[in-house]
UniProtKB/TrEMBL annotation:
It comes from the Bacteria. This is glucose-6-phosphate isomerase. It is an enzyme of class 5 (isomerase). It catalyses: alpha-D-glucose 6-phosphate = beta-D-fructose 6-phosphate. Gene3D superfamilies: Jelly Rolls. It comes from Dictyobacter alpinus. Belongs to the archaeal-type GPI family. Keywords: Gluconeogenesis, Glycolysis. GO terms for cellular component: cytoplasm. One of its GO terms (molecular function) is glucose-6-phosphate isomerase activity.
Length: 257
């Protein structure tokens, strides 16, 4: 089935739920979708031999309206999108591998990203440290229309729930690199998210806090409006997103979060 994402995303997008792919209107620029497979995600799973769908998710980096491309590039921004499969990987809920973002040189701060969910349900998992000792971990439930700014430097991943494919958009910095290696060396996040709704601790961590439950509204949105697509609010007021490429303008407001 094709799902119309125009009013939620602010762009000419449709979701092909069977193929886990986006269809783009004639006024859009976009790359070929990259498929992430179960094979690639195995080092990050509780059970590295887990059975599950081979096609985990499809990623589109750098999409937008053709007429907007010069302004997006000039501002150092990049808009990406991901479409997830649903189901389980062994006894875990289907999820992304998790990563951290690269540091902007000279600032001591890692890049952020803004998520906007379009379809499906699940939780964003946030973990403050990408290290064996963790001081903060959050699970943040999401549904269509929810937006969330990822705290600078935190591990983040998306855990899916239910039968409907999760799809979302994300604004981030063009310079940002996704870093997987350190989290992979820890065997994934500090917790695994089991199909029965419980959590299992990753034994490779030394200190792990209780997971706190929070809502998207508990996290600073830095002035990004919640009543319209973040692509639309960028078109109306690009300055709202200047902090994406310039984390030093904000400072680490999540330091004591
Ligand atoms: Fe990210």
């Amino acid at each position: 089935m094709m799902k119309d994402l125009r009013s939620l995303s602010g762009m000419d997008l449709r979701l092909n739920e069977e193929q886990l792919r986006l269809n783009f209107g004639a006024d859009m620029f976009y790359p070929d979708g990259e498929v992430r497979t179960l094979q690639q995600a195995r080092p990050m799973l509780a059970d590295t031999q887990a059975q599950g769908p081979d096609h985990l998710y499809t990623i589109y980096m750098d999409i937008g309206r053709k007429e907007d491309f010069p302004a997006i590039e000039e501002q150092g921004l990049l808009y990406g999108s991901v479409v997830y499969n649903h189901g389980t990987l062994g006894n875990e809920r289907l999820r992304s591998q998790g990563h951290i973002h690269s540091e902007k040189s000279g600032t001591g701060l890692r890049y952020s990203e803004v998520y906007e969910f379009w379809t499906g349900h699940g939780q964003v998992y946030l973990q403050k440290e990408c290290a064996p000792d963790v001081t903060r971990a959050y699970l943040v439930p999401f549904g269509p229309g929810d937006k969330l700014v990822i705290p600078f430097g935190w591990v983040h991943l998306v855990v899916t729930e239910g039968e409907e494919p999760v799809s979302f958009g994300a604004w981030c910095a063009r310079e940002n690199q996704l870093e997987y290696a350190h989290l992979r060396s820890l065997g994934g996040p500090a917790y695994f998210f089991l199909a029965d709704g419980t959590l299992a601790r990753n034994p490779r961590y030394t200190t792990v806090p209780e997971v706190r439950h929070a809502t998207p509204a508990d996290f600073p949105l830095l002035g990004i409006p919640t009543d319209r697509p973040m692509y639309t609010s960028w078109q109306e007021n690009p300055e709202l997103y200047t902090f994406m490429a310039n984390p030093e303008l904000v400072g680490d407001i999540w330091r004591d979060f």
